[in-house]
Amino acid sequence: MNAAVNLTANRTRPVHDVGPSLSPVLAAVALVTGYTRFGLVSASTGEDARAYIESQNSARHFKTGTRSYKHRRSGLFLASYWFQVAQTFDTEKGTLRLAMDEHSQIPNPAAQIAQVLLILAISVAVIGSALWMNLDAPYLAFATASAFLFHLRARPGWRELLLAILIASALAMLRVLFIPGHPRDLAGFVAAMAGLGSFLVLGIRAARADKLHRKRLFCLLGPALGLVFFIFSAQRALNLADLLYPKTFDLYLYAFDGSFGFQPSFAMGRLFEHSAIANTIGFLAYQTLPLVMALVYVGYINPKATKPVWYLLELFFLAGLLGWVFYNFVPGTGPVYAFAGLFPDKTLPYHILRRLLLERISVDGAYPRNAIPSLHVAWVLLLWWSCRRFSPWIRAAAFLYLIATIMGTMGTGEHYFIDLVVAVPFALLVEAICQSAIPFRKRLLPLLTGLGLTLAWLTLVRFGTALVLKSRTIPWILAVLSTAAVFWVEHRRLGIEAPAEPVAPAPQLAAAAAH
To answer: What residues have CB less than 8 Å from 260, skipping those under 6 apart?
Structure first.
């Protein structure tokens, strides 16, 4: 428990921060006079300190409370001590109050040195990221920008927010001055610098905070760092699939999409070509996924909580991991990569698809083999399901974002329509695994449904394309039944709010502060 120790009396008084005006005076006093050692004090050091300071005419009306110290203190140590004392000065009474832990002692020089080194390490990491981070990597800039949203959740004052913006501006200037060339994506560049500024401010706050407030800040810093690591690691994992499969199943996916009677991705691509509004909405929805992840995530975080909420990160990571596993069943890229020059204007008629020789085709290894299932749609669907705890307006906004993402995944040529269909049972599988608050026996049906339907669709794409090409109604019936079954099972078995970490009650907060 934090207690205010009045240096004149034991009762508390209002405190006014006088900032740097008093700190240098007390620091100079300690540096000049403090090398005369206190010695091994067995009596009240408050009396010794008072007598010592008053005897040097270096302060007046300073009276300390009673505490015992068993170690010698140098002048440099006393300087740091009085720097802290100077921050709580009662201008009305001319007295000092020191906010300290009831169980704490005078600050440890080793701890202070460690704190300074930690702040330096955080600063070097942030500046290094600003200079050398690959802002052209997909989604990494907006993943970094998510730190700014977590910073806002900490409810910073306007001065702290202004400081973060100024730091972001300085980092942007460093990048422009020392790294040749201008950023190709200006919006991503600005967003990334804003995120790095918030990372630095939050990191310094955490380094300087006491144990309780450091735990609260880690509830924000942990998920923010986790999102960046998640995006970074997901990109590296996809590169492995590029090396394993020089030839892909894109022709199978193209033919399967054609079994619906037309090519949905090509049709959406043509809409994007002729409608600037649709193109902008779809592109922004596709590129800003990390920011939307962060927006939903901050809604799960209570600023006073002392334990991080990892549920959403578990969803993201598990979806990425299982998605990479399923990519190996039917490796594919997307129509914009496999049919460059043809997308979105040129397609084969439906009757020709039946005579099409299905085989693997060579696609440039620079393009990731991450077509089916669509992780983009799976992640956004999981986010929409996770918004049950929020207001109807937020849930409606999340649903509209899901629709925009569906448009963006197809209109940009990144995915086929069948990729999105398979993403629905795949998302159910991920949620069933991660909803640990629900008994396993209740999660078993969603888990088996999601796994079974995902594997069934992948098997049908790889080996049963000729079957679905017999009639246009077959793939539509299968897609509707599969999606309806997923939503019914999810609502009946998993349709509860995902639990957030509770805020520690008062006794637990006191215990955390005491230790």
So the answer is: 417, 472, 475, 476, 479
